[in-house]
Design brief:
Blueprint: H1 2-7, H2 19-27, H3 40-49, H4 60-70
Length: 71
């Protein structure tokens, strides 16, 4: 969701012919690039939420705390 707020569009993996191919790439760790201009705190939060290990991702309280520190 934060990616969409920061960029104005949903995340997508470019260069995959099918949704299946994009899904397979995601499962192997691929993530869409963040465009220039995304604030560093938002980029850090987005990439931490995309961590391949669910246990390493921030929970809602941690994500909210990070957003509150930024503002």
């Amino acid at each position: 969701l934060l990616y969409e707020v920061a960029t104005g569009r949903p995340p997508e993996l470019v260069g995959h012919a099918t949704k299946w191919a994009a899904t397979q790439a995601l499962l192997q760790g691929a993530r869409p690039p963040l465009p220039p201009g995304v604030p560093a705190f938002a980029a850090d939060l987005i990439t931490s939420c995309w961590d391949g290990s669910p246990d390493a991702r921030p929970d809602a309280a941690a994500a909210l705390a990070q957003l509150e520190r930024a503002y």
